Structures
1.
Amino acid sequence: MSNQLFKHFNQIVEVHEHEFQKIVPFFDSCHLSKKENILEAGKKCHLNHFASAGCLQMFFISGDGTERTIRFATENRWMTDYLAFQNGTITDFYIQAVEDTQVLSITYDKQEKLLTLFPKLEKYFRFVYQTSYGKSLTMMKYLYDFSKEDIYFHFIEQSPELAKRLPQYLIASFLGFTPEYLSKIKKRS
Amino acid sequence: MSNQLFKHFNQIVEVHEHEFQKIVPFFDSCHLSKKENILEAGKKCHLNHFASAGCLQMFFISGDGTERTIRFATENRWMTDYLAFQNGTITDFYIQAVEDTQVLSITYDKQEKLLTLFPKLEKYFRFVYQTSYGKSLTMMKYLYDFSKEDIYFHFIEQSPELAKRLPQYLIASFLGFTPEYLSKIKKRS
């Protein structure tokens, strides 16, 4: 389980086995059942999560009471509300397991301490955040620019494995459709 | 001009004057006149820009030919298309000066070399990206959840100085309104 994180570190920076043994205790390992929350709106956000197996979704409850998903994190992806995590404040988001999911979680204070002790991991997180931020800018362009149908086809083209893995109502929640509208698009395609 | 970057580094990590003298040559300094582009869609994106004075906007041309702004960068903010910057690929975005603007620009290769020579700057960029990524997640929530009017009032409440500084058509381009719609909201308020 932590082996997944070890491999992911080594895709970006060189972390030796003996170093990793000192890194592991900074994390808490947690198994989430499908639909279990690891973060809830209205609570303080003090953990950053690495999905080592399974899939997480980050969503909020919109003004009309519907769940609106803004991100998924499958294996090797990090997920938290970074502003609330950084500032130790209350979050507006939920993070929930889409399927049975294994996460490694680290508190803000422990992450800062870990980075002081292993500065090479600054590069790792810099790269992870640089990529995630870049993707979010590109995602905003799609949301603004594409028609609803184009957003759907772009999503299944870019993330075919994720699209197969997710239930239809979650794809609808992510793309801002009703499940009925998504069915219509799929029938037309 | 580079003094602004020196101060900003030192808000996050400790960089000494003698170190900064070795850092400065990694950057090219550039003055942009109002409406001048420093990045254009269809071209390779190989530079990351620090706004030391003035204001930049990042936008794309949407399918219907309108400019759609996704971010502004005033003093102390970094701006590029991070995915294209990281991958050395062609961008879909423009970066343009909103007013006379002074930028310090660094190529991808030079930034990587700089971070190898001064690993403490990994922490600086990790923090910058962590914050930017956190803000983009929160921005997505507003875009999904808020009514157009609420988006406008939230923007002027959160960024009163920027709202005063920007021409109305750019605020409209950022919030996804027509300039006429923005005028209507302002009259009603």
Note: The interface with chain A takes residues 58, 60, 62-63, 68, 70-71, 81-86, 92-93, 115, 119-120, 122-123, 125-126, 129-141, 143-146, 176 of chain B (CB under 8 Å).
2.
Amino acid sequence: MTQNTANQPNPQAPRVTVGGVTRELPTVRVGSVGRVPLVEFIGDSEFTKAAAGAMLPLIPPGTEVLLTVVTNALPLAHELSDRSGLPYVTVRKKRRTYMQDPLIQNVPSMTLGVSETLWLDGPHAARLRGKQVAIVQDVIASGGTAQALARLVERAGGTLTGYVAAFKQGDTTLPVAYLQELPTSV
Amino acid sequence: MTQNTANQPNPQAPRVTVGGVTRELPTVRVGSVGRVPLVEFIGDSEFTKAAAGAMLPLIPPGTEVLLTVVTNALPLAHELSDRSGLPYVTVRKKRRTYMQDPLIQNVPSMTLGVSETLWLDGPHAARLRGKQVAIVQDVIASGGTAQALARLVERAGGTLTGYVAAFKQGDTTLPVAYLQELPTSV
């Protein structure tokens, strides 16, 4: 019942298996690139749990806090926090009215020339201070967001232990620990 | 370690206990209203799990699908889906590039005179068709978002079974099943 049914069936759609759970990924047409496989953990609790379980051993030793970013990785970070016993901190992509002295960090986009802005609320930034922090994402592609998160760890006074993602999809040069590589187009 | 530490300690901060887990809620100053208690499930997996467990009996009988909206309710909806065995569908607040024939629904704001727009991707809307659907939120205040979600259920061809929230915080006239009422100011 929780199977991912987004978008049209495609005979060339890649299949992924994580933690014993298999999904045929939907693909979406992106410009002239062709069809790009899309991972959706939101709306699929079975797949989310399986990925979190498989990602547990990828968390670098000594990690004390997980850092993630809204929105797609949120259920995954929740599960990983629950299973690892490590707290997680979430960076937002919009300023919230309640934020106090947030850290603000731009993500340079490699493809569109526009930049995205990350917001880390001050009291949450304080939870990273003096801590060993691992960055957790659903998919790491160019690595631009991951690098902006790493900069936030540093600015908050934490120490980065590493990058953990369910999937790598692209040519980042960051040392990412991931479960499976996805094609950038099919 | 997962205790909610956002914002300053406040001697008047309300405490809530759900599913045996107690949190002192941070409060934020909002205009001339005073301080408003703030619930944050994001970043607190222990509190999220406790609330989801306590909310299970609130899901109306016959419900086949849960419908929620980003962002704050997302870990809660994931947990509730996992524990109930019911799939969940998530409405977005921004158009995503991959969406196909999304349903678009305005949320009239009662306070600011500006409206927010909800986006339900077509393939996800199809998962509501002919189904009994319960709306799940972290907090229901005015009920404006809840009503917009109900309209989306109807437009997608589903039937609404009811509204479920962890907290009610305000004067909505909707028949919401909730765990606890929060003050709108302290």
Note: Helices of chain A lie at 45-55, 74-84, 122-125, 144-155.
3.
Amino acid sequence: MGIKTREDYLASLKALRPNVYKFGELIEDVTTHPATKRVVESHALNFDAANDPEFEDLYTTTSKLTGERILRWNSLMQSQQDLIFNMKLKRQNYRRTGSCAGAVCVGWNAQSVMWAITHDMDAEFGTDYHERLKNWILGVQEKGLTVAGALTDAKGDRSLPPSQQADLDSNIRVTEIRDDGIVIRGAKLMIAGSAAANEIFLLPGSVYREPDQDFAVSCVIPRDIKGLTIVEASRPGDRRDLEEPAGMEVPNSGPTQGWLLLDDVFVPNERVFMCKEFKYTGNVITYFTANYRACIGGCFTVQGHVMIGSSILTARANGLSAKTFMGKLTDMSVKNQVTFGMGAGAIALGYKHPSGSYFADSITAHTNKVMVATLPYEVKRLTQEIGGGIVETGCMPSYKDFSHPEYGPLIQKYLKAGACSPESRFKAARLSEWLTIGGGVPGCMHGGGSPDGAKMVVKASTPMEEYVGYAKKLMNITEEIVDPPKKK
Amino acid sequence: MGIKTREDYLASLKALRPNVYKFGELIEDVTTHPATKRVVESHALNFDAANDPEFEDLYTTTSKLTGERILRWNSLMQSQQDLIFNMKLKRQNYRRTGSCAGAVCVGWNAQSVMWAITHDMDAEFGTDYHERLKNWILGVQEKGLTVAGALTDAKGDRSLPPSQQADLDSNIRVTEIRDDGIVIRGAKLMIAGSAAANEIFLLPGSVYREPDQDFAVSCVIPRDIKGLTIVEASRPGDRRDLEEPAGMEVPNSGPTQGWLLLDDVFVPNERVFMCKEFKYTGNVITYFTANYRACIGGCFTVQGHVMIGSSILTARANGLSAKTFMGKLTDMSVKNQVTFGMGAGAIALGYKHPSGSYFADSITAHTNKVMVATLPYEVKRLTQEIGGGIVETGCMPSYKDFSHPEYGPLIQKYLKAGACSPESRFKAARLSEWLTIGGGVPGCMHGGGSPDGAKMVVKASTPMEEYVGYAKKLMNITEEIVDPPKKK
Amino acid sequence: MGIKTREDYLASLKALRPNVYKFGELIEDVTTHPATKRVVESHALNFDAANDPEFEDLYTTTSKLTGERILRWNSLMQSQQDLIFNMKLKRQNYRRTGSCAGAVCVGWNAQSVMWAITHDMDAEFGTDYHERLKNWILGVQEKGLTVAGALTDAKGDRSLPPSQQADLDSNIRVTEIRDDGIVIRGAKLMIAGSAAANEIFLLPGSVYREPDQDFAVSCVIPRDIKGLTIVEASRPGDRRDLEEPAGMEVPNSGPTQGWLLLDDVFVPNERVFMCKEFKYTGNVITYFTANYRACIGGCFTVQGHVMIGSSILTARANGLSAKTFMGKLTDMSVKNQVTFGMGAGAIALGYKHPSGSYFADSITAHTNKVMVATLPYEVKRLTQEIGGGIVETGCMPSYKDFSHPEYGPLIQKYLKAGACSPESRFKAARLSEWLTIGGGVPGCMHGGGSPDGAKMVVKASTPMEEYVGYAKKLMNITEEIVDPPKKK
Amino acid sequence: MGIKTREDYLASLKALRPNVYKFGELIEDVTTHPATKRVVESHALNFDAANDPEFEDLYTTTSKLTGERILRWNSLMQSQQDLIFNMKLKRQNYRRTGSCAGAVCVGWNAQSVMWAITHDMDAEFGTDYHERLKNWILGVQEKGLTVAGALTDAKGDRSLPPSQQADLDSNIRVTEIRDDGIVIRGAKLMIAGSAAANEIFLLPGSVYREPDQDFAVSCVIPRDIKGLTIVEASRPGDRRDLEEPAGMEVPNSGPTQGWLLLDDVFVPNERVFMCKEFKYTGNVITYFTANYRACIGGCFTVQGHVMIGSSILTARANGLSAKTFMGKLTDMSVKNQVTFGMGAGAIALGYKHPSGSYFADSITAHTNKVMVATLPYEVKRLTQEIGGGIVETGCMPSYKDFSHPEYGPLIQKYLKAGACSPESRFKAARLSEWLTIGGGVPGCMHGGGSPDGAKMVVKASTPMEEYVGYAKKLMNITEEIVDPPKKK
């Protein structure tokens, strides 16, 4: 069995039942429809890399289960180096696609998280989830699949737990347990890369208590499973994806997010890895966010690198030397490196779970999430500052106008600024726009959870009273000093 | 003669020759075409306000020339209060439109700038520009017109002055002087509100020296003048403007920028206010930027107010209390108020020109521009933080999907979060998106010039050696201390 | 009656009863003791300026009460220009002293505040406070005094109102009302410039309700009044003030704060301007903070100017060109100008009280306070960055070592960096240190109240629901959308 | 041979020749003189920890050379874990001392740097430096010494290389090579912990070329070597160190920096590890800064922790609940963790040198330096914000006043705020002051080199053209686009 190729991958997607919609229409073939072909291309590039001698060490690895050569995103992460490779794969990926490729990311992480969780659940409950998961992983490794991951539920009224929602479907739940499997319903929202995935790994979306045990469910479903409808989300710039010729207004790669609508979907037992064991949902979130928020630096660092490249390009296309902006470009580089360095630090400070899975240090990973919700915005701002008005507010006509037979030549005449062709200037400006205010903007803020959530973890992880102890000792203060009592 | 109404205004636009294009097509009627009707509506709202007893004191004033009641944006600004009213009119405008309405802004400012410049040029050269301008102003006041303003040329190779460009058309220039007028050609780019303007006020785009005297030209042209083609610029989200029903994905108002392509346009003498007097181009830029960058706070303060409103709305629509975000909302309010307060400060520290025009303090105005290029980005970031994922990366399906007969109800079901209808949540999220990453983003960064340019003014306005003197005096240092000589 | 001179001023201080202590000792003469002579010098420079033709227009004005020429800091502020002059006087002052001169600042402000408050109290209660205040002002104008102002009480347990404190002295209060005056006791803390003041203007330290009416007191006391003990506060660098020769380690001017300990002080009726009228304490705080926080920009702008000067000086003394740091110096200038511009803006947006007093716009003034608690810190950081290690952490020996007969010459030898004498380099480095981490650091953070207090005013002044209305109108959202009800 | 104790350490310092001066006087015993006893105590605490079962695993390790148990700061760093332990030792150290202890830091780092450099020099030049170094290390390990490290020269005119200085002593240089050793002269400035060191490790202060080969010197000297005079530097707050009773105004531990004046110091060959091999000075700087700037996070993270503790303490001592400031405290925790996490990341991304030494990743380490020059300033600002006025500007009398027999009780009365004794409030406020504006402020900005230097490394390490390549590929731009040629 060899490493799958782009062609294998595209064929596997074409073979799926069409169940993805956008702009009110069913997409017959996600690999060719302009609304989804970019995200598919973003993933196909991973198969190219896996078959490229230059990148194969990064994009493939040896299965810890079989010793076979497998796609790296189908492998278990059991060491610092495995997690560093996760960061580096994302980094390499963003370099070539300009943005996010969700189906070689969240599902990969989910696999190692559930590897640990199933290990612990089996020990406590005598279940066989770990073996099920292992068997599923073996299959995925053999078939060389892309697997999206899905956490976020619709949630409904956020002040109420799932079991008290007016609409119980607001969170994915088990509605029926059969001998051979379970039936689930509900929705998972904003699922990155779902249109480009072969399968989708579902995790519980939050920490649940006993009354909400029906919502404690983890399983994997094929993307075209019966009962699943996917509606692609829409962002301001995405109608540009529909323009012809492709590649003028936006790159030929890029991210998408989908809404997964599950209408009584039957999942056979061998694909179910948690069913009502609510007690372990806390650890699912803890392990998942630690690794996800550590490795997220791989993404934002390198989208920042592309912004540096795009900024130099627009500067030159505007007729200016990149040296003019060297201070800003260096600041961008500093801001970029923070999230990558912090990610590596969270990994270096991490620990190994008894199951073999390796998890990053929590407080460092969550601090990194806060940085990711801040620094890329500053890098974008600098990209717009360097790029000039034609980058910032779309102060440039469309490519339809650029290529208009009558006045198009005038647009081009006035786009000429010395250093390159009008077309290159047009494209460079559109790239900076796409990266900062267009379709290439990934979810720095809320992807993988909100910074306020991360801050809550930082707060909980900060031993404030221990720090008070240091201060007291330094000044030899011995009396007890506590918060004043609440006044009535 | 009474104050013109929305109907008068729309009729005046309909009467113009169609010469505005977008997406490769001629727009027959800018008042109804979806690509331009929003910017027209943004301006029409000004006529409504001018005829509304609640706002008439703000939107109308007494002509200093005739004593007649006129539209305020057709009035000369000759006092602190006049400039404060400019800020307040923009502020009120943004409240109702959510963004920029260029044709009641730049042309208004240009009029007072040229009032001073023509006064000074006439004194030096014995020309009659001031009288021409006065007559034109009288006409505009009587007719109650909207007037866009145009500074930015195509520029070409930025390291070369206009007269050394390979293509002399890279900057607007006088190609012929006739007895009855002048012929000009070239282009003005990124001109806000041009599609909604009756006329366009041209100013020189930079400071010119003698060899570039052909480029020192100021005049006013009707929007549909012979030889003028306007191509509307395109931004990521603007194809949403074309969607039906209108008002779901984006507001019914909003900004546009156009490229003005001038192909040997004849301008009669009575509309020409500068022709080759290169020596005064420096003051045009100085006066214009001082007032523009002082008053710009009126815009960004209140777009920030709308972002506060939209943030509260999305929070509630997400099922959360606005109180949860009170710290962030207060920070937004602080950041908003800086640009308004600084603007008022620049005005308070300003001065009156012998012609009567009042100009804001330069260093304060340019400092304000630097703030405007920074703080609104932070307010947007907070808007996305409060709004959650459905605001940030367009993680919400299109309205076509929302209203799809089959799966639309499911989209709506999962959008339900307790506090309001799914439709309101959809709209609120789209508004925050439009304000932060969509079509409502105005040009904080480069509108009215770049922050680096503003910093150059700040640097030049900072008496560094005087400050060295304070330091030396404080420590009683008497020896001369200068920069080391350059080493060879 | 002419404008008083430095000599008059020093004589007036020498005539006072010694009641100022520091480091455990009574200061016999504040004008010569090294712990207080710098703050006295900071004030004496104001008398110099008032008698200097170059500055007399700024430092003196015409009394609105008598038409006589008076010291400006003894005048009522009744217009925009009066307040702008307040900013400009502080600015000029900081230029020559490097820091704060409290006794020509808070008392001046207090006078105009109480001018309005007494006007309103008299109208409601039929009291004669306004006339008393007027008479006192007439005396001060004639005598040309310096007047510190005192708001901050010791406070005790901050969660309890004054009347419920275990120690009622925690806030200044009226303990006895006699026919001819009142007796007060308590303490006012951190009172800037008290050692250099002829008199001290007491204001209530907070907003009080009826049970706390004993604490609603405003009056003026001579600095050496019977029962008053002043203890000077100590900051890290202030022992350098005691070194000889003076002027090497620190400038010869500079700020101090004192603790005023009032032990049953009798204040005659003609000096009492509020006694138990608790209802007006809210307006005292409102008026005082608006003007104080507007004008505070005059201080921090120009201390930033001195930091620019000191930074250029240290750069050159280090052997580097100031041009190396031009980007940072320009950033410093931008940050400096914000607080001045905002202050002017708060004034421009202000209003006139029926009594004649002019007050700045509240939200803008409080926003300015938030800026003042942030931006000067960044300017200091840049000062340390430019100055190098000898500025940052005191990595330079003392002047005692610099001038040591044996190894002093070696210190000087190794301080030589090309551009100036070792002594000038020593002094320049010490100045930057003094400004950023030494005795010259004024109270950006808590002076005039804390930024969190200012944010509370900003929050209260932000019409959040009005802003929600703008957002709803833009998207044509008509349903009512409110915060979710609190869950039980 | 056992691990040395505090007593051993203090005895070893007492045995040294007195050659340390401050405030113009010779310090006879650095272990008891108030100007130096704090920095000695900071180091003595390390010996305590090394003999404390709770900390011995951190503070001691097994010698890679002998297998003996040694003090960790005398060990070679040859793995990720070794460097992580460096960070953790510093972190633990700062917790107990509040600031920097230089003689268990820079010398430790220098040893591993020169381990690699001597390895490479020997290979190229056939020298025996590595063996010399090894022997010296063996001695240090056996004797359990503290070793400061010294890089920064006086420099003189920074625009000239050492060999062209007017005064050749501006940089440490070899003036004579004898059979048995070398003679050096010059000065090393701002050397942390020199007064508490047994020995001092000298490294070249910059990258030198052939004409400057005399300045390429590395060796170790005893702190009391003949010809060496040390003058302690002075910072604003350090005269508080001299106050009695100790421990009221400042902690009993704390940092110092010294100027080392070398007047023809003879260093025997066995202590010389580089002599004129200028070619390797580049790598000395590269290796040293990478490890130093990676591990620096250990320091600033935990000084930030102490600031959190001190902030909570002051809040409570002020009578407020720490909860009031939870948002700020969490922000502080986030900012703290960045530098620690980035440091661990730089280590995780590092590499092993053929000699065995392990070095951190350069771009990440230098990015960390930029963070260290920024974030601690924000943490300090927040500490002052939380602490209130008595923390910010020293608005509190001295302890001499606090304990004054007459008015001291009044000071204490008015310091009472409910939660603790006046003395504890006094001490807590002084601690926050000491940490933010007093003697405990370490050199975040310039310690270990300036952030501008770090940015130059980041710039040089950023493959800008590679990033341009990504951008071009994304938009399929194939033409070459370069900077415009310089105009003449």
Note: The longest helix of chain B spans residues 281-317.
